[in-house]
Amino acid sequence: MSISEMAVLLDDAAVDATAIPQLTLSHELDVDGAYAVQEALIARRLDRGQRLVGVKMGLTSRAKMAQVGVHEVIWGRLTDAMAVPDGGQLSLDGFIHPRIEPEIAFLLGEHGIAAVAPALEIIDSRYADFQFTHADVVADNTSGAAFVVGAWQPVPAGVDNLGVLLEVDGKVVQAGSTAAILGDPRRALTEGRALTGRYGLDLEPGWVFLAGAATAAVPLTPGAHVRAVVEGIGTASLKVS
Ligand code: OOG
Ligand code: MG
C-alpha cells in the first residue's frame, strides 16, 4: 500500500469515527514512512480548507510512554479545525474512543517563546483498542484530535517545576509536574524544532506548540466538565456534550 493510500485510510477513519487495524499489522512502515503518511494525511485536510496552526509533541513524559507502550518522542500537526475555545463545548460524536490529557502550550514568537498557557489535548487513536507501534501512531498524526488553549500568560522565569492537575467534574483525576516533560517543557521545544526540521517543517511564529502531557490521559465521557490546572499559569477547560 502506498503512502497516500495509508493517508486516505487514516483520514477516512477520523472523518467516519471508525477504528481501523494498525497499519503495521499488514504493511511495511518505518518511522520515516510514517511521517510521510502523516504529512499526506494533513495535506488532505489542508486541501479541504484547514490551516496549520501549530505542532504537538507526544510521549515526552514517562507517564505517557508507559500508558501507550511506545518509548520515543513523537510529534504531530495541529490544524485550526482541531481547536476548541477555552470553556467551550465538545460533542463526542466525531470521536472513536477519545481521551483527554493536561498540557502546557507555548505561543511561538520570532525569537523563542512569546507566551505560555495551560492546555488540554483530546487524543483519539484511529486504531482499534488504542493500540499502536511507534510508526502507527506517527502516521496517525500522533492520535491528535482536538485541543483547548487557556488564556496566554507572560513567560515566567521557569516552567520546569509547575504542578499540573487534570480535573473531571471538579475532582482531580491526574496530578503531575511540568518537570515530567523531558525535565523541562522547553526541552520539548528544542527537540520539537530538531525533529520537525528533520522532516522539512519549520516551526513558525504565531503557532501553538503543545509540549506533551505530563500525566497519563483519561477517557473522555459524555457530560464531563474537564479542566487542566497549571500552577501559576491558570486553567483551560472544556464541557463535553
Ligand atoms: C499518543 C499521543 C501522545 C502526549 O501528549 O504524550 C501525546 C497517544 O497517547 O495516543 O499527545
Ligand atoms: Mg498530548
TrEMBL record:
GO terms for cellular component: cytoplasm. One of its GO terms (molecular function) is 2-oxopent-4-enoate hydratase activity. Coiled coil: none annotated. Residues 127-240 form the Fumarylacetoacetase-like C-terminal domain. Keywords: Lyase. It holds the Pfam family FAA_hydrolase. This is 4-oxalocrotonate decarboxylase. It comes from Catellatospora methionotrophica.
